[in-house]
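Margin note from the TA: students keep mixing up input and output lines. Inputs are the sequences; the output is the structure of the whole complex. Example:
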Amino acid sequence: MKPRSLSQLRKEAASCRACDLWERGTQTVFGAGPERAGLMLIGEQPGDREDLAGEPFVGPAGKLLDRALENAGLHRAGVYLTNVVKHFKWVPRGKRRIHEKPNAREIKACRPWLDGEIERVRPKAIVCLGATAAQALLGRDFRVSRERGEWIASELAPFVMATVHPASVLRSPDEATRHAEIERFFADILKASSVL
Ligand code: URA
């Protein structure tokens, strides 16, 4: 059977009630990008900005990702961007909505959507951004700190790797570290682009 189209999946995911996160999120933030993308980038979950816009990676982490893609000669319009969890999980702190990590149950509940996206796009390369995506896709024992930037044998795609989440790069404690982390992050995305 032919896998469902992305627009079909997106429509179905919009009313997903497989976990409770829909109650707090503004909307389901489904993946974005062409069905024929060679590269799929997978993050953790939409953040505050993405939740409001309904698009993945449109906030500060997304801006850094855009720069990394451009540095590798790619453009976001040509890659498929998505998340392991498709609702923003947050807790209130004053007037702000503070990101909370999704738990195993929420990740599992959302998995059919991600599997549907991978099945339909069949990218040549997948890059997991951060530990949540890496462990969801490559196993609980996977450590980004140990295997970052390495190709990992996986049935998900011919080339699969994990790197840090761009938001963690932005949280670097000082300018020098941030600069070095940006360089390393750019190098990982460049390596991913080299197999396309
Ligand atoms: N962080 C993510 O993991 N995904 C987004 O879409 C935005 C920020």
